[in-house]
Amino acid sequence: MSQVTDLKTTLIINERAGGGAMLDCFRRLEHRLVDMFGDFELRFTESRGHATELVREALESGAQRIIAGGGDGTVNEVVNGFFDRDGKALAPETVLGLLPGGTGGDLRRTLGLQDEESAIAALAGRNTLPCDLGLLTYRDEQGQTRRRHFINIASFGFSGSVDRFVANFSALPGQWAYLAATARAMMDFTNPTVTLTVDDHFEAQAPITTVAVANGKYFGAGMMVAPEAKIDDGLFNVTVLGAMTRLELLGLARTIYDGTHLAEGKVLALQGRVVEATSDEEVPLDVDGEALGWLPARFEVIPEAVKVCVGEVLR
Fold first, then answer.
1. Among 81, 59, 56, 208, which Cα is nearest to 133's?
2. Is the pTM of this model over 0.85?
3. What is the mean pLDDT of the segment spanning 75-83?
4. Which long-range contacts does 243-251 make (Cβ < 8 Å, 24+ apart)?
5. Least packed by Cβ within 10 Å: which of 49, 119, 169, 202?
């Protein structure tokens, strides 16, 4: 295997991701990573939000390549570490790499890095893709206004309710964990009424099931909620699932995994750079697969904000 030792590298590993699967993955690949990168810094996360602080410390120490080992939530924390607390990019030329692990893995699906071999091949190569990010302004659990970056998908409604149950099923494989959480969330979910605007060309107030503001294609461990999304086009693909009954939601499972749900009557597909949503009801957010606060929310695209290691498939 050729070495790519020209960049100072830090690995951030969430050993608890995927019910411990991430640690097993790292141990299998450790010697190959040493062969590839030579000396690298290895840091393990200890709590929620720790990856963000570890990345900031690494960048301040001169790291030029950050590798995130974990699921979509870990990647989200790592991406936020590329910025200081005021939202300023700390090291715009730093490269982000991904190792497989965690419950969802939806960003890796969009990037074509669905297994260990494809992830290693991307890290061993020289190809990077300048990916867009989203900047989310939202209300946290204490009612305070917060800002957070996301790289894959931020959504609200039923998806946010599902997130609040996924941890209860973390011992299951990714897709099964989300299916179990979905079944639990269905028991008490009602369709909230939301006012939604997309740029200056769409505004509506209506009950919804879920609205996905998508930079990538997938969420919920493989649901292709935004099949036309491109992670580097400077646009969000906004998928609106109108108000649905439990039976209609179950029916949607037949089509959302292959992206054909966009043809259904209660589904609307939009594009835009700025999305805003408000509601008089408590509507939970899902941000890169993690439960994070409530509406009101504003979503803004930041074009080409981070360089991500990818394979030949995306070039």
1. 81
2. yes
3. 97
4. 243/191, 243/206, 243/207, 243/208, 243/209, 244/191, 244/209, 246/186, 249/158, 249/186, 249/209
5. 49
